[in-house]
Design a protein that fits this description.
Elements: H1 3-35, E1 40-50, H2 56-69, H3 73-83, H4 87-93, E2 94-99, E3 102-111, H5 114-133, H6 136-139, E4 141-147, H7 160-185, H8 191-195, H9 207-217, H10 234-259
Antiparallel strand pairs: 1-3, 1-4, 2-3
Helix pairs in contact: 1-7, 3-5
């Protein structure tokens, strides 16, 4: 067998979870794009105008504030009756966004059909304008409708390309996890650990037990020699014998003198 074929087979054995999971994930994403219900989005625009010229920074700051109020209950309550949705439904269908360098608010409405999305966006925009202009004397700015929402030509979701890409990415992740699991399961176990024939762990003995053991292993000292029963040391015996020898000639001399 040639070397390229061997390398291809080796790669196929190693990477088959990823190769199998990526097409399956892409197919799942495409299937979701086909069966999912479409959703349309429409945008309505409102601009903040200052009462005094040259206060553009003030208008931008109020645009940021009113953009956050677009999804609040006090604004959605008036728009709910016009759209036929409840306030809770409008909180999900409508949201507002702002620009950091322009005093403009974008109201985005979504719906299952284009007219529903347009109706939701325009209703919330009008409600926001009416709510903000009630306090224009205090704030020094007023809101003016800039552009009404237009019906979208195509749905924003689902997107076939996006769903296929997300499915393929999910397949890569799942395949990589399967590869890691298989690699951990096939790792070789050391022979010593598998058979249990490795050296047994040694347990150190406490020091209190080492001292008696060393004392028992030390050689025994020789016992002292026993003293004679008389209780006299050898040096004392020698001294006593010398004294007796000195006394004997004296006695002999005294015996000879008396014989004369």
């Amino acid at each position: 067998m040639s070397e390229p074929r061997r390398s291809v087979r080796s790669l196929a054995r190693r990477w088959w979870p990823v190769v199998l999971a990526v097409p399956l994930g892409a197919a799942a994403g495409a299937g979701y794009a086909v069966v999912a219900h479409p959703s349309y989005a429409a945008n309505s625009y409102v601009i903040v105008v200052p009462e005094n010229q040259g206060e553009s920074a003030t208008a931008i700051n109020f645009a940021q504030a009113y953009g956050r109020l677009a999804g609040q209950p006090q604004v959605l309550a008036a728009a709910a009756a016009e759209t036929g949705h409840s306030r809770a439904e409008l909180e999900v269908l409508v949201h507002g966004t702002t620009s950091p360098d322009a005093p403009m608010i974008e109201i985005t409405g979504t719906g299952a059909r284009p007219p529903e999305a347009v109706r939701a966006a325009d209703a919330v925009a009008r409600s926001l304008v009416a709510f903000a202009n009630t306090s224009s004397k205090e704030t020094g700015v007023r809101l003016v409708p800039l552009a009404a929402a237009a019906e979208p030509d195509k749905p924003t979701t689902p997107s076939a390309q996006l769903d296929v890409a997300v499915g393929a990415a999910a397949g890569v992740l799942i395949g990589a996890l399967v590869m890691m699991t298989r690699r951990r399961g096939t790792e070789p176990v050391p022979a010593a650990a598998a058979s249990g024939s490795g050296p047994a762990p040694t347990t150190p003995r406490p020091r209190t037990e080492e001292a008696p053991a060393r004392a028992a292993d030390a050689p025994a000292e020789p016992a002292p020699a026993e003293q004679p029963a008389t209780g006299k040391a050898p040096a004392e015996k020698a001294a006593a014998g010398k004294t007796a020898a000195e006394k004997t000639p004296t006695k002999e001399k005294s015996a000879a003198g008396s014989g004369r």
